[in-house]
Amino acid sequence: MYRVFGLIGGKLGHSWSPQIHAALGCKGYKLYELPPEELEGFLRRSDLGGVNVTIPYKREVFKYVDYVERTALEIGAINTVVNRGGELYGYNTDIDGLRYALRRGGIDPNGKKVTILGSGGTSRTATAAAKALGAREIVVISRSGENHYGNLERNADTEILINTTPVGMYPNCPAAPVDLRAFPRLQGVMDVVYNPIRTGLLMQAEELGIPHAGGLPMLVAQAKAAEQRFFRKSFDDTLVEKIAASLAKDVTNIVLIGMPGSGKTTVGKFIASLSGRELVDIDKLILQREGVRPGDIITSRGEAEFRKIETSLLREVCASGGKIVTTGGGCVTVPENYPLLHQTGRIYRLERRLEELSTRGRPLSAGGIEGLRALYAVRDPLYARFADVTVQNNGALEDTAEKIWRDFCENTGA
Questions:
Q1: Which of 149, 165, 182, 215 sits most deeply, having the most CB atoms within 10 A of its CB?
Q2: What is the pLDDT of residues 16-56, one digit of tens each?
Q3: Taking the model in full, what pTM does it have?
Q4: Which homologous superfamily does the CATH classification assign to the domain defined by 96-216?
């Protein structure tokens, strides 16, 4: 008998759940947007196998289940419903995912002060997880109440920080709900947001050398826990890692930086041919939007004005992933551009012998070889600061493209 599996909610929009559950073996998993008046009827379907539940029904489904797992009762939210012989069982697997992500990130709340940003349903899940993992103290920060964003100094002794708010989520990225420097004793940062895979909060934790964990492994691990309840079978955590890595690869950009004339556009075209990905050339996009070539903008309006236009487009283009992005040679001169590229990208620096760099139509590269050397001396440490990988591009451009694509496939993960 065919059984229905899927995700139910109000407005679902884009969801990664079908591909995650398909990878876990549930090929018929679908999305079901339900108005409130159809919720009960859907749950009473005789062919219902199991569903995950999201906003706004995580509390509403309590009315219709016959049995509720204790953890779901404590949290006050059900995100997984399973039909067993006509009786409905309610679970919360978000806590399984959150605990997995913390463990994976090397973040241990045991004996520590945990501060949770946000007071909604996911906050309650984080509170339950911190409690179960032995937190010494748990503080919830909300927009109002005893502990809020205006008196963070009261909790400067926080050791573990968990963000359960949507701040920093696509397309409003890379915003962050707090400045981590307000918590000098931090030993771990968790952000439940998974799009982008590196939020503003996680990038600051990375910069400060604080262990951190993102929302993508949590998303996959909670799906695994749901599947285990759907089918009463177990899955190894290696499958979670495999699925999370595959998703991360799909939503990560390949970003090319380097000196003007280093071959970024041509190499980008070859990678696009290899991968089937969209190529976004920032300089060409500026020409399309402004109707003027980048070099002409620099000559007529000044480099500072050009950099503002460039940063605005990088913010737009790099808010989402899955593309190849080729940048202008001077994008690294604006520190603000680094988090824009890094949040969704693996950044490759193309290195080419200065004598082989083209200077045609490039006002900032004018001045012959001595001008290039002077420009390189300024930009070399900036390229090094931005790049995840440096690739020599002194041979065949096709070989450089293949090298980058191979590295990307082997080293991109959640």
A1: 215
A2: 999 999 999 998 999 999 999 999 999 999 999 999 999 89
A3: 0.91
A4: NAD(P)-binding Rossmann-like Domain (3.40.50.720)
Long-range contacts of 133-141 (CB under 8 A, 24+ apart): 133/99, 133/102, 133/108, 133/109, 134/109, 134/110, 135/109, 135/110, 135/111, 135/160, 136/111, 136/112, 137/113, 138/113, 138/114, 139/113, 139/114, 139/115, 140/115, 140/116, 141/115, 141/116, 141/117
Question: Does residue 388 contact residue 348 with C-beta atoms inside 8 Å?
Answer: yes
Domain ranges of the chain: 4-92, 96-216, 252-411
Rounded to whole angstroms, how far apart are CA atoms 343 and 81?
Answer: 34
Q: Annotated active-site positions, please?
A: 58
Residue 22 tokens, joined: 């398909």
Distance CA 187, CA 224 (A): 28
Residues in the chain: 414
353 three-class SS: coil
Spatial strand order of the sheet with 389-392 comes to 278-281, 323-326, 253-258, 345-351, 389-392
Place of tokens 């953890």: 71
Q: How many angstroms separate the CA atoms of 109 and 130, rounded?
A: 6
As to burial, measured by CB atoms within 10 angstroms (0-12 exposed, 13-18 middle, 19+ buried), residue 410 is: exposed
- Residue pair 95/69 in contact (Cβ under 8 Å)? The answer is no
pLDDT digit string, tens, across residues 329-345:
999 999 999 999 999 99
CATH number of 252-411: 3.40.50.300
CA 215 to chain CA centroid, Å, is: 7
Residues 29-38: contacts with CB under 8 Å, at least 24 apart: 29/5, 30/4, 30/5, 30/6, 31/6, 31/7, 32/6, 32/7, 32/8, 33/8, 33/9, 34/8, 34/9, 34/10, 35/10, 36/60
Asked if residues 311 and 264 have their Cβ atoms less than 8 Å apart, the reply is no
Report the DSSP beta bridge partners of residue 48: 4
The per-residue pLDDT for range 129-177, each reduced to its tens digit, is 999 999 999 999 998 888 999 999 999 999 999 999 999 999 899 999 9
Q: Positive or negative CA dihedral for 186, 192, 198, 201? A: negative
4-92 has which fold?
Rossmann fold (3.40.50)
Q: Answer for the pair 217, 414: CB distance below 8 angstroms, yes or no.
A: yes
Distance of CA 15 to the CA centre of its chain: 14
Question: pLDDT tens for residues 49-69?
Answer: 999 999 899 999 999 999 999
